[in-house]
Amino acid sequence: MGALRSTRDLGLNPDYEGKVRDMFDLGDKFLLVATDRISAFDVIMNDVVPGRGVVLNVMSLAWFQHFADQVPNHVITADVKRYPAPFNQHVDALAGRSMLVHKADRFDVECVVRGYIAGSGWKSYQRDGTICGQPLPTGLQRAQKLPKALFTPSTKEDEGHDENIPFSKVEEMIGPEDAARLRDLSLELYTRGREYAEPHGVILADTKFEFGRINGRIALIDEVLTPDSSRFWPADEHQPGREPSSWDKQILRNHLETLDWNHEPPPPAIPAQILERTSQRYRQVLEILFPQEAAKWQAYL
Questions:
Q1: Cβ-defined contacts of 2-11 (< 8 Å, 24+)
Q2: What is the pLDDT of residues 205-225, one digit of tens each?
Q3: Number of domains the chain is built from
Q4: What is the per-residue pLDDT across 231-273, written as a single tens digit (0 to 9) for each?
Q5: Domain C-terminal end among 234, 249, 264
Q6: Residue 81 is part of a domain; what is its CATH number?
Q7: Which among 106, 122, 146, 195 has the fewest CB atoms less than 10 Å away?
Q8: Are residues 93 and 169 in the same domain?
Q9: What is the pTM (predicted TM-score) of this model?
């Protein structure tokens, strides 16, 4: 199936366009469409990664279903034929990469959980022995499993960078009871996700969740345990002291780092082979974790 850069190419007019998703406000519902756009260093590339949006959407749908016995979610349907007009007229373009969801009263908190020391967490630990202000034992190595998973929340910003905040700030923002519930849910979901991934040879190093309230109940929303919201590592490559390759857009970032580019718009053109390798990397982790879902949506990947 062809790549999709924007739903505007289908003659549709989204109410909101993010780095990846186009969103349509349908009153008490949203239609979310995961395009094949890709960004790096906060700049959206002009080129697209074919099938990337389908991977992100299908993985989220699979995880929503996996966690449905523990927490409700915002999904109504991913069957394009059940969408309202004019969206139901675009089955081939929207199948696999879209979902109709309930609107939620979103908590403006990114619920980040870290099970391994990597990325900005490793930099913070090197600097002062903490991750987001939480002290850790001395002598930990890069990519090492933490003694216990950490809840390290951040603000949820529509524009600009999210900012790490202490748990006490979350309590101030949304109240102690809801803050505790989001923390506990995030840690529980991360643990279940990690335990699901391990037998498949995948390490879930860290991730972030988003929650909202729907009909008075806390619900899981947005995307869940995708290569964009999580750090997935091949277990057979894991060795403390060295961070393994991730199933994400690192191939693209590595390429961009070789260029004479200042990380400001306009972005450089991306060679077809880099786009294809990145696409394969995304598809691979979906096929490993959810082979049946990957097969179900294969025509759209």
A1: 2/50, 2/93, 3/36, 3/48, 3/49, 3/50, 3/51, 4/33, 4/35, 4/36, 4/48, 4/53, 4/93, 4/97, 5/35, 5/36, 5/37, 5/48, 6/35, 6/37, 7/33, 7/35, 10/90, 10/93
A2: 999 999 999 999 999 999 999
A3: 2
A4: 999 999 999 999 889 999 999 999 999 999 999 999 999 999 9
A5: 249
A6: 3.30.200.20
A7: 195
A8: no
A9: 0.96
